[in-house]
Amino acid sequence: MSRLLPLTFLCGLLLLTSCDKQMVYDQYVSYPNQWERDSIAGFEFVAPDTTQTYQLFINLRNTSDYPYNNLFLITRLTFPNGRVLGDTLEYRMAAPSGQWLGTGFGEVKENKLWYKENFRFSEEGTYRMEIQQAMRKGGSTRSLDTLKGVTEVGFRIENTMNQ
User: Fold this and answer.
1) How many domains does the chain have?
2) Helical residues (DSSP H) of the chain, grouped into ranges
3) What are the pLDDT digits (tens) for 44-61?
């Protein structure tokens, strides 16, 4: 009976991970409950099929230690030929009531944040996605040195629904 429990757990885990048919790429960088200003979450990946379109997401896991209701990010997507697509983005992290947005039970919430919709990788080769926090305090022009409450930052590519 004691051997049956680990086998059952392993089968359940394989079943859960094999059900994500939309996922093409999904990676995370972990942070020890804070994200430093100079710490850039970097992700390298080979372009999927260049004839198809994809949904691109930034995933963020935060705890209740996160002190803000929004999040500013700077992103850079570098193409194989060196061209860079840069963006400054703002996301809402909490409702006006103070309730955290995102999914999850308990202390950690996971937010799946839209980055690009129906995106086509126009070149074959290796791409690099970089994500950096850009939160500021009270009108300052400089980003916070430390952003508390962030435990992981991820990047995800999904097949579009119509494929």
Assistant:
1) 1
2) 4-18
3) 999 999 999 999 999 999
Q: How many CA atoms lie within 13 A of 10 on its CB side?
A: 5
Domain residues for the domain of 69 are 22-159
Residue 136's CATH number: 2.60.120
- Residue 8 burial by Cβ neighbours in a 10 Å radius (0-12, 13-18, 19+): exposed
As a whole number of angstroms, the distance between CA 68 and CA 147 comes to: 10
Question: Could you tell me the pTM of the whole model?
Answer: 0.83
pLDDT (tens digit per residue) in 30-45: 998 799 999 999 999 9
Residue 21 confidence (pLDDT) above 50: yes
Q: Please say whether the beta carbons of 121 and 127 come within 8 A.
A: yes
